[in-house]
Amino acid sequence: MRIVLVGPPGAGKGTQAVRLAEKLAIPHISTGDLFRANISQQTELGKLAKSYMDAGNLVPDEVTIAMAKDRMEQPDAEGGFLLDGFPRNVSQAEALDELLVTEGIKVDAVLDLEVPEEEVVKRIAGRRLCRNEPSHVFHVTYSPPKKEGVCDICGGELYQRDDDSEETVRKRLEVYHTQTEPIIDYYKTQGLVVTISSLGPVDEITQRALEALKREKAEQ
């Protein structure tokens, strides 16, 4: 299957992407990994992306799309792939459709991980990291340390990242609603969107997603 994974920050996309890709035996293609790989390997696209990033500018859609195209053309993606973090806006979704048409293939399903906004804020703003390396992660509600502010594992100081503050999380949600959420409506017109709740244990969410994708495939 060729799947696009969408959902707000804190919906658990990264966790579910890895699990679903493994279960479905398809590669997990994330925007972050694409950028890191191209930059570390000093590809032409990587150098171009880095030039924008070093200047403090957003990497243009066409560069991101070119990276995704190159990755989707790798042999391990012939039988399908799971896109995580791409497309990020409607113009990228349109470009992806055009790209796939030239290859004679299409997106099979768009998996939308749904989670209430206040739960997103609670999940991210409650996260605490250990300052020591490797950094261990705790959560003030879901996995609190035995002693507040102290890592259970190494005794290091726990802290909240600046971009995990409630104010920053709400700004990230605004960006998601403005830029990324419209792709759900875009794909709904094609009858491709499968929405599931991203609440509950990780294993249950994975199973929920697999069953929803199976139903979607059977209906096509």
UniProtKB/TrEMBL annotation:
AMP binds at residues 31, 36, 57-59, 85-88, 92, 161, 172. It holds the Pfam family ADK_lid. It comes from the Bacteria. GO terms for molecular function: AMP kinase activity; ATP binding. ATP binds at residues 10-15, 127, 137-138, 200. It catalyses: AMP + ATP = 2 ADP. Signal peptide: none annotated. Residues 127-163 form the Adenylate kinase active site lid domain. Its EC number is 2.7.4.3. InterPro entries: Adenyl_kin_sub (IPR006259), Adenylat/UMP-CMP_kin (IPR000850), Adenylat_kinase_CS (IPR033690), Adenylate_kinase_lid-dom (IPR007862), P-loop_NTPase (IPR027417). The keyword Secreted does not apply. Its main location: cytoplasm. Residues 30-59 are annotated as: NMP. SUPFAM superfamilies: P-loop containing nucleoside triphosphate hydrolases. Consists of three domains, a large central CORE domain and two small peripheral domains, NMPbind and LID, which undergo movements during catalysis. The LID domain closes over the site of phosphoryl transfer upon ATP binding. Assembling and dissambling the active center during each catalytic cycle provides an effective means to prevent ATP hydrolysis. Belongs to the adenylate kinase family. This is Adenylate kinase. It comes from Streptomyces roseochromogenus subsp. oscitans DS 12.976. The lineage of its organism: Bacteria, Bacillati, Actinomycetota, Actinomycetes, Kitasatosporales.
